Amino acid sequence: MAYDTRTGSLLLDELGVQRIINGMGWITTVGGSIMRPGVVEAMAESVNFYVDLHELNKTAGNVIARYTGAEAGLVVAGAGAGLLLQAAACIAGSDPDLITQLPNTEGIKNEILLYDGHVSGYARCYRAAGAKLNIWNEGDEDPKDKLKSLIGRQTAAVAYLFHQWNRCPISLAEVAEIAHERGVPVIVDAAVMLPPVDSLTRFINDGADMVTFSGGKGLRGPQSTGILCGRADLIEAARQNNSPNHGIGRPAKVTKEGVVGLVAALQLFVDADHDAEWAEWQGMTNAIVDDLRDIPGVDIRIEDNDPDRQGPNTVVYFKDDWDGPDSQTIIANLAARTPSIRLGYGKRGNEIFVAPVTLQAGDEAEVSKALREELTAHHD
Ligand SMILES: *Cc1c(COP(=O)(O)O)cnc(C)c1O
Predict the structure, then answer these.
(1) Cα gap 111→124, rounded to integer Å
(2) Measuring from each residue's beta carbon to the nearest atom of ligand 1, which residues come in under 6 Å?
(3) What's residue 348's pLDDT?
(4) Ligand 1 pocket mutation pick from 26, 27, 28 by most atoms within 8 angstroms of CB
(5) What is the pLDDT of residue 6?
(6) DSSP notation for 56-119
(7) Which atom of ligand 1 is nearest to 82's Cα?
(8) Is 211 helix (H, G, I), strand (E, B) or coil?
(9) Secondary structure letter of residue 35 according to DSSP
(10) CB 131 within 8 A of CB 275
(11) Which of 53, 54, 112 is nearest to 83 (CA)?
(12) Distance CA 262, CA 222 (A)
């Protein structure tokens, strides 16, 4: 039977799972991203041979180092595993006894300083390695002085997050300066920061000792991969704590196909015509906005170059005279359709947004049609 990418009929028939239309962006729960064709080909080729995984990891690490400007790199099982290994590397280093001891961190410096505006569910990944989070904020003090006062003998690392939730009053470069004066490494979660391409080098240039990126979000590599890059000694420690070695990262295995796919994705990402991709997203967003512009009670906007959004988003804001269902109900109605349409909700308030980066050709017309129906149904 032919596999139809529009209807996902093979999945539908054999697994009883439906293709959804993803207007939420590069989000794990709806499948992350679609790999570029060259990635799938590289993975398919690697299925057919054996390699020494240590040798493959080293080679892939060299490619990552070249593209990020870091001393070393490692393919990890998603940015989540990147966080786990950042913590493990900073706590246990390359000491075989300590690697075996994790996640028990008794008697070892085990504290990771994390700004309270950077706390998310992903902080869990640091704790999985045995780290104790020391969550801080400046209170009434100067944030630099506060951070200086908090770094002590138990501090294994200072963590920094780049995301829409990044509200830290001090920059990464300033944090790095303070931490480095005290001999403490700075570990960065940049899972969602690709694109743009210059994120690959930006955080390393700002002084980060280790940075992790998702491989399966905007990089469009295999879903279960990520990048870890940084200081050679710390990356070596991360490697020793990771699969296929028997450290805390052993359950976060990256297959040879995953390593090969991540490297291919990284090369294709750097070489891609990002302006052309942006123009394509812009075209879909313009089409949706044009279709919906005249609907009463809502304010349909394009939000472009907004760090909180992936690509140029269509955003539906509800005006004071809106007399229809609330946005959560609309989102649920769209999700209940066949095919299920998943749109984003509420980064600013109760707005609905469409991220074009994960729409596939033709999806924009279905999104417009369905949104128009849901936004006008209460007038029928
Ligand atoms: C998605 C995400 C992660 C986890 O990345 P995976 O590649 O899915 O493991 C970590 N941190 C943040 C901020 C994220 O958004």
Answers:
(1) 14
(2) 28, 78-80, 120, 122, 163, 189, 191-192, 214, 216, 226
(3) 79
(4) 28
(5) 64
(6) HHHHHHHHHHHHH--SEEEEESHHHHHHHHHHHHHHHTT-HHHHHHTT--TTS--EEEEEGGG-
(7) 9
(8) strand
(9) P
(10) no
(11) 112
(12) 6
- Boundary-marking domain end, from 234, 250, 271: 271
Specify the DSSP class assigned to residue 70. -
160 alpha carbon – ligand 1 mean position (Å): 13
For residue 1, is it within any domain?
A: no
Residue type, 15: L
Atom of ligand 1 nearest to the CA of 215: 7
Ligand 1 centroid from CA 296, angstroms: 38
Same domain for 130 and 234, yes or no, is yes
Report yes or no on 106 lying in a domain. yes
End-to-end CA distance of the chain: 42
In Å, what is the CA distance from 344 to each residue of 18, 23, 27, 313, 333?
A: 19, 7, 10, 10, 13
- Supply the pLDDT for residue 360: 94
Q: Is 233 in the same domain as 277?
A: no
Rg (CA), the chain: 22
Which ligand 1 atom is at minimum distance from the Cα of 192? 15
Q: What is the pLDDT of residue 1?
A: 42
Compute the distance from residue 49 Cα to the ligand 1 centre, in Å. Answer: 30
The closest residue, in CA terms, to atom 12 on ligand 1 is: 191
Q: Identify the pLDDT of residue 147.
A: 98
Ligand 1 atom closest to Cα of residue 162: 13
**Residue spans of the chain under pLDDT 70:** 1-8, 164-165
Q: How far is CA 231 from CA 11, 187, 209, 234, 362, in A?
A: 43, 11, 6, 5, 44
267 and 277 part of one domain: no
222 and 75 assigned to the same domain: yes
What is the position in ligand 1's atom list of the atom closest to the CA of 161? 13
* pLDDT of amino acid 168: 87
Residues 304, 160 within the same domain: no
Per-residue model confidence (pLDDT) at position 349: 84
- 214, 220, 254, 347, best to mutate for ligand 1 pocket (most atoms within 8 Å of CB): 214
CA dihedral of residues 98, 104, 108, 110 (deg, nearest 10): 120
27: number of Cβ within 10 Å? 17
Which residue is associated with the tokens 């075996």?
100
